[in-house]
Every structure is written in C-alpha cells, then in structure tokens.
Amino acid sequence: MKRLFILTALGGLLPAIGRSDVSSYQYTGYTDIFSDPFAFRPQWSPDGQWIVFDDHERNSNYSTNSYKVYRIHPDGSGLECLTCGRTEVPLNSGGPAVDPTGRYVVFTAEQAGHLPLASGSSATDPGGGIFNDVAVLDLQTQNIYRLYVTGSGVSGQPVGGSLFARFSHSGAEIAWGDYISPGANGNGGNWFGVWRILVADFVTTPQPHLANIRSYSPGPRAEFYELQGWAPDDKSLIVSCITMPGQNDNTLDIALIDLINNRLIQLTPTSGMQGQPAAYEEHASMAPGGDAIAVMSSGFYGVNLNQTFLAWLKTDLWLANYDGTSPQQLTFFNTPGHPEYTGQTVLVSMLGWSPDGTRLVGNVYYEPNAGHPDASSHIMIFHFATPSPSLSGIVSASAFGALRSATPGSYVELYGVNLAGRTNQWGTFFNGDHAPSNVDSVTVTFAGQPGYVTYISPGQVNVQVPANAPNSGTVPVVLTYEGKSTPPLPVQMQPLNPGMLAPPAFNVGGKQYVVAQHGDGSYVGGGNIPGVPTTPAKPGETITFYGIGFGPAIDASGAFLPLAGQVIRSANTLVNQVQFLFGASREPGRITYDGMAPTFTGLYQFNVTIPNDIPNGDVSLVVLLNGSSVPQNLVISVHN
Questions:
Q1: Which of 17, 103, 157, 544 is the most exposed place for a label (fewest CB within 10 A)?
Q2: pTM above threshold 0.85
Q3: Domains in the chain, start-ordered, CATH in brackets?
C-alpha cells in the first residue's frame, strides 16, 4: 500500500482502448509451423517467444502414448517437451498456459489410480478433463506441483475433472473449468456434462499453491462452462456456454462472466433462440487491446441439434468486435472452391493472441476422408498487418497536474490509436538500474532523442522525457510501433515543469488533495478519499510528498545525478530552491529532505515538517520552486 499511488502514477495503470474496431485488423494469411496427428491446444507465452501446446509423447509408441506438454518457437524451431519422463505426471498432461513472468506453466494432469473408463475413451485427454487435476510446472526449479486435486471416482470420491486452466494477465489468479456431474444428454439437454468455473489466487510461497477458491456459474442454465481465457482487465472471463433459456448445447455461444457481479454477458448472438441464427462457437480469444474476439465458429455451415458435435461439426476462424458485432470470416478451409479447401472437414480451434495483437495461434485439424486417409493436426499462426499509429494529444503526467508542457526528466502521456499491440509496463524491461527506451516494439523520441517508455496500451503510452531533450521551445514528439511512426506532435518544453503528486482519485468535492505519507507509509487525509484509508497530518509531524519536473539534484560529492532513465540509489539534494507554504498565512514547513527519490527515476521526494500553529481542517498548500508557484491548487488535511 505504501507505494501504490506513486507506482500507479508513474506506470499509468489504465485500461487499454484498443484499435478503432475489428475492421482495422487486416488479415494477411497464415503460417503452418508444426503438425502431428495429436498436436493440440496451442497458446502464446506472454513474452511472445514460445507457443505451448500438447501432443502425444513423440517416440516409437506415438499413436498410443499419453499427451505431454510441449513448447516451440513461433518460427517452428526449438521444439521441447516439458513433461515427458516426469513421474509426477505419468499419464496425460496438457492444455498449458504460461504466467506473465514466464516462470510457471499451468496445465491439467490426469490422476494415476482413478476409476477405470471404457477402453478407448478420450475423456481423460486434456480436451476432456475427466480425472484431471490442475498442476503447475516451475520452469526455474523444474518442480511440478498439483494445485487442485479433483475426485478420482474411487474410495467414495466423486468423479471430478479440470479443464483449460488459465493465468490472469496479472498472474495473481488462475481460473479453470471444474467438472461436477454427467448431466442429461439429448436434444436440448447437456451434451458435455455439468461444469462450473473456479477462480483461485495463485500463491508462489513457500511453494506454489492456490488460495481463496471461488465458484461461478451464472446464466439461464448453470451446467456447462468451458473457460477460454481472461479479458484484458482481469475483471471478466471468456467462456463457451449456454446463454439463452432452452438453448441446445450444439449452438454454444461465447460469453463473458462478469466476476464482479457474477453475471453472464452473451458476446456471439448465435444461440438459435429468440430470432438469433444458430451456430456452434467455442475456443474464443480476446485481443490484448480488448477490442476484438477471435472465434472458432461453424458460421454458415449449419448445426445438427440431435447429434454430438463430433459427428458433423466443421469450423473456420472468425473475428468480431469485442461485443460480437461485425463478425467476419477469415479462413475458408471448409468452403468448396476456395484455395484453402481440400475436401476434408476442418476444425479451426484453440485460438490465442500473441502479446502484441498482431498474430493469432490456432489449431487446424483435418479429418480423414476417402482421399486423405490420415488425420492431421496443425499449429498455425494467423497474421494481421500492424496498423499505423496516430497521436492525438500529449500532456504531462495526469497524476502530477496534467500540464501542457514538459521538461527533461519529467513524464508525459501520449494519446491516440494503434499506439501498441497490448497493455504492458516497463518493469521487466529494465537492464539493471537502466530504464528501457523500447517496450514491446514501442519507442518515443523527443527531437530525435529516445525517451524511456514506462507504460504502453493501444490508446495511451507514457514516457519519461530524456535528459538530453531540449529544455525550451517546441519539440517534435514521434511514436514508433513495429517500425511505423506517427507524424510529429509538438510539445512545449520548459527548463523546469514542476508538478506534485495529486491524482484525480484524490479530488473530492472539488478539492484536490495532495498525496502525502506518514512516516509509517500510510496516507494523509481526512478520511474522505474513496477506497483509501487516511488520517490527518499533525502539526509538528514530518510527512513525505512527491513530485516531478523539479530539475537537477546533486549527491554528497557534488556530482549531478541522472535526470532520466536510471534508478536513483543515493541520497541527494535538489539544486533549485523549493518551499512548502501551509494555510492562509502561508506558514513555511521545515524541509528535511528535498531531492530525487531513491529507488525511482525522475521522481522527487520532499520530507516536510508541518508548522506547529497550523489550524485543524483542510488547509491550502502552495509549493514554490525558485519563488514561482507550482500551478496546482492543493489542500492537505491537518488535525492536532
């Protein structure tokens, strides 16, 4: 809690805006990177360097072997089995997904010693999930842990199962499908059994485990839910399920489960009910920008309400807006006369976006027929052209006053469209104490000098102005993403451009409260900041303030510290004179520290003692830099 608002202010934790709509996704074709008869369920790693999937263990007994977790580079190189020969998971293991750090791979693993099933049953495969636990592989230690153990069907235990475990984008949670019972098969009944969605906190210490497990099963028929993944904001889950009363399971829809309100939101209106067309849709993936969904859909090929889908289903890749509108068919593997058509029935499934939103991995399965006696399953990458970025506005950091000018070392926010392929921050891109100038192929220059990219999203990019940028006049700012650059956008530069940390969340009733911390790290306030516990400052108490744009600082030897791009490690002193004046009488506070904040870059810290004779209540705060007022109207709560 201590550094929450500081980190949020510098990192820009805002939701992604995305491209304008699905029409901006220009599909350019696909690459077939791997094929095997049993290669299924591919997903990207968050760093974009790997695709994880499952396949039968690849040796002389391939056709009868269990599924194992593999990974491969997107160019088809570096194939590696992650669970082969592991005694902890001797049977099926698959349906993998990688956490944001790249350290953990979650997957489902068949139990040993469960209730025997009929010979030839695929129910325990990673796509069936029966008698499968949720497990995780620690790539750093190579240890495997079973996180959630389901019922084995023996010794009085129920029949259980787990399907498609997925990390949240934050990595703090895991969701998966949890099997409950067989359900009632038949026309309009449940072809897939009764499942629910479970969500749990993923805890890594002292060893990986789950905590705080929650259950979700909203909607008109609380029976079948197949998890597809998380929405970019981690507040919703994408699922395949029944969304309308009386709907047949062979017309599955894509929907969102709103985790906050536990409600179901239909995304693809193809239920066959209430005037909607009927289609089978599954294995959806929401684009990193949250603006589009890729869907496995039977589209115009029709459905059969009376047979299991395995007997008749054919699907292609479709893309729609995030709410299901403007659907577009992208592949035509099942359309006679199209160059992609081979005469075989094809299932396009198990879709997953690359982190930058320019590629989509999927499973393309060709069923055997008279002309093609062998089935084949392909891992394919579908490509989209990178749209040209466009800038529409620039301000200094909104949490520090949102000024229309900037200075070397301060932070600015760039607004526009197509600025990045996903939402990300600079934390994992640091090289030691040196900040990155490139985050996921996004760079920004000020008069040709590279800035330090702190946060990216399709609609907003935050940057620290480099120290060698001009400190006067109008400077051109250019953003480049995937090699495509925006036209220059001018920003007015100043030698100094101070702003105090006072985010919109601290504006209550028209009063802009400044962010300040007590010595224990708790926040100063009158108890009226929504969602933030606060207590007033006391006269005579020393509290800490933060700002940006206050200019150079020197260490104990008199050496100047870097204004930008490097984490500050030593105590230092501000070169320019700063004053803190409290209340109508403008009583000066005693400053015990004024300089750059250690462990940050470009952030200034001020430790100030409140004057003893300041009255109780919300009092004004004026900050002067070299005698000129910082252009913010600030208040602070004081009570003796």
A1: 157
A2: no
A3: 20-385 (2.120.10.30), 390-493 (2.60.40.10), 499-638 (no CATH)
